[in-house]
Amino acid sequence: MPVVSGSSGRVIGEALAPLLGMEFVALESRRFPDGEGYVRVPSDSIEAVRAEPVVLVSNTYPDSGVLETILLLEAIGDVRRGNLSNYKGQEPQSLPDVGNGVFLAIPYYGYSRQDKRFSPGEAISARVIGEMLARCCDGIAILDLHAPAILEDLSVPVEFVSAMPEIAELLANEVEPDFILSPDKGAIARATEVANLMGCEFSYLEKTRIDAHTIEHQPKDLDVNGKVVAIVDDMISTGGTICRASDALLRQGATAVHAACTHGLFTAGAISRLANHVDGVHSSDSLPNPRAVVSSAPALARGLKILLE
Ligand code: R5P
């Protein structure tokens, strides 16, 4: 059974395949000179893609990742339906349809934060993308989706999986925190899971986002004097949320503050901004980044095993 990827899922796909007892197969993906994407299931992989169910690992980020994911799913779907008709006249032009069996593993689901119509006239982008993907696969595993409710009733089964167990293990081995903090209410479930797995104290802050670059936390007394604290969030983008939370912790006597997340977006300058506010930053490899120290593969494997059963 193959785990396949285009350009964005190769490292995770190679780690995922042995966890599922599968082989990894790289598909062709490149860019035309004008920037448009090109994908292909290579001739020598057609048999593998048709033989058994297929898992595609692909991010829907950045925008080119959304398109590449859809093009790859369509290319795999055509191969499995036996539609190989081509203008070069390469044989065979058609084969029997081998039926359903295309599963998508998404390490980072782009557009996840536009999961509501905050103002009239907006697209609910997270839903739009989910519906497009569901049209061309038979099940989806998504790693630490910001707010899973938006995809709960898609037309194919969706497994929402989390890298928090692996993040807890990393923190236990490398940081040994006394206290876990969620920097906002949205991260409470994930941070609580980490705190429970580690047997640590836990609390959370209440955050108001003023704009994409500015946030405010409500003042709160935290019992962190003399303690090592790890702030746990689903993603770090500008780093503003973590920097403000860390400042509050240090003002209240924390001796060291670390940040951990599944999705390290680290938009312009975030890594150096964070270096001035925290003692360490730890991320999964759902997106390639200089702080990727936790593999996304075990969490995705947990979800895919359920889908494949
Ligand atoms: C939002 O609720 C998310 O969970 C993160 O807290 C947020 O996206 C982090 O963004 P930034 O790093 O730009 O503050």
Number of domains: 2
H-E order: EHEEEHEHEHEEHEHEEEEHEHEEH
Beta-strand proportion:
15-25%
CATH architecture of the largest domain: 3-Layer(aba) Sandwich
Question: What's the quick description here?
Answer:
This protein has 309 residues and is an alpha/beta fold. 31% of the residues lie in helices and 25% in strands.
Structural write-up:
The chain is 31% helix and 25% strand. With 309 residues, it is an alpha/beta fold. The protein folds into two domains: 2-162 and 297-308, Rossmann fold (3-Layer(aba) Sandwich); 164-285, Rossmann fold (3-Layer(aba) Sandwich), CATH 3.40.50. The strands form four sheets. The protein has a six-stranded parallel sheet, sandwiched between helices. It has a six-stranded parallel sheet with strand order 10-9-13-14-15-16, sandwiched between helices. Helix 1 crosses helix 9 and helix 5 (164-174) crosses helix 6 (188-198). It is elongated. Bound molecules: ribose-5-phosphate. Ribose-5-phosphate binds at residues 183-184, 186-187, 215, 233-241.
Task: Spell out the blueprint of helices and strands.
Layout: E1 2-5, H1 10-19, E2 23-26, E3 28-31, E4 37-40, H2 46-51, E5 54-57, H3 63-81, E6 102-106, H4 125-134, E7 139-143, E8 158-161, H5 164-174, E9 179-182, H6 188-198, E10 201-204, E11 207-211, E12 214-217, E13 228-236, H7 240-251, E14 256-264, H8 270-275, E15 280-284, E16 292-294, H9 297-308
Parallel strand pairs: 1-2, 1-5, 5-6, 6-7, 7-8, 9-10, 9-13, 13-14, 14-15, 15-16
Antiparallel strand pairs: 3-4, 11-12
Helix pairs in contact: 1-9, 5-6
Residues 183-184, 186-187, 215, 233-241 line the site of ribose-5-phosphate (R5P).
